Amino acid sequence: MGKAVEVRITGTVQGVSFRAYAREQARELGVTGWIRNEREGSVAGHFEGPDAAVDALVDWCWDGPPSAQVTDVVVTDASPTAARTFVIR
Which of 37, 39, 84, 89 is flagged as catalytic? Predict the structure, then answer.
């Protein structure tokens, strides 16, 4: 089995390589999906994979890369999309 979630990360999360670091973490954990910058300054993503791996990536989002200052991570359940890779959009 596994799970899929949508995430929205707020704070100082753009211009700090958040998406590139997240992609690296996702690939190490075996999580698929995507991550992108949003117009209002947040970062949004779709993560899917084994429960523990998805949870680990969500936990990582609370810290992010060294220059990020995360203020919130909102997680909602999502439907799996059968993604095969993890991409930056």
Answer: 37
